[in-house]
Amino acid sequence: WRCWLPPGFRIRFPEALRAATMVLTFVTGNKHKLAEVQAILKDVIECTNKKLDLPELQGEPVEVAMEKCKLAVEEIKGPVIVEDTSLCFNALKGLPGVYIKWFLTKLGHEGLNNMLAAYSDKSAYAQCIFCYCEGPGKEIVSFTGRCPGKIVPARGPTDFGWDPVFEPEESKQQTFAEMDKVEKNKISHRSRALAKLVEYLKAKKPEESKGGVAGEKRRREE
């Protein structure tokens, strides 16, 4: 059985269906980050991942994330998100910041605590910047989420980065590592940045249907 369609005939799917079938590629090789992002975006946006060997850039967090996104989208050729995460100690004027991965590798959880041994101020904040790009040549948009807290001796599972030493203000005196994953995802820096991304994508659909033209680059921060 064959169905004949006239030349030029196009099937137009409802807007809601097109939005539902959107797939984002999260550039990461970290299975814990991927699982967290997929849990946060569950029932909203389908998210897959791809590990890319992007150059290690230096500069302001937003600038670094946007440049990484620009490089990533040239390889992915489709909707992509790139993350840049920081852990900032207020007593150290924001250090280790974007270099937390290397500090943790070299010093461990105890070493991170020792960095603040001479300071009474143990306050810190976790920051996440997600950059989104629809495709090569398209606008790059950034979304920032922050979660205030403090640095404490490691507590809880030690399989996910610096989670054991960061106790968010909004937790019940639990570190990220000790918290139930659902509860963590309600207040984390990552979930706050992703919430802004979702809002942007929802607002972008009506704008596109009206033929709206977005700026070359746009930034949304707390």
From TrEMBL:
It holds the Pfam family Ham1p_like. It comes from Lotharella oceanica. InterPro entries: ITPase, ITPase-like_fam, RdgB/HAM1. One of its GO terms (cellular component) is cytoplasm. It catalyses: ITP + H2O = IMP + diphosphate + H(+); dITP + H2O = dIMP + diphosphate + H(+); N(6)-hydroxy-dATP + H2O = N(6)-hydroxy-dAMP + diphosphate + H(+). Belongs to the HAM1 NTPase family. Its EC number is 3.6.1.66. Pyrophosphatase that hydrolyzes the non-canonical purine nucleotides inosine triphosphate (ITP), deoxyinosine triphosphate (dITP) as well as 2'-deoxy-N-6-hydroxylaminopurine triphosphate (dHAPTP) and xanthosine 5'-triphosphate (XTP) to their respective monophosphate derivatives. The enzyme does not distinguish between the deoxy- and ribose forms. Probably excludes non-canonical purines from RNA and DNA precursor pools, thus preventing their incorporation into RNA and DNA and avoiding chromosomal lesions. CDD domains: HAM1. It is an enzyme of class 3 (hydrolase). GO terms for biological process: nucleoside triphosphate catabolic process; nucleotide metabolic process. It comes from the Eukaryota. It is found in: Cytoplasm. GO terms for molecular function: ITP diphosphatase activity; metal ion binding; nucleotide binding. Coiled coil: none annotated. This is XTP/dITP diphosphatase.
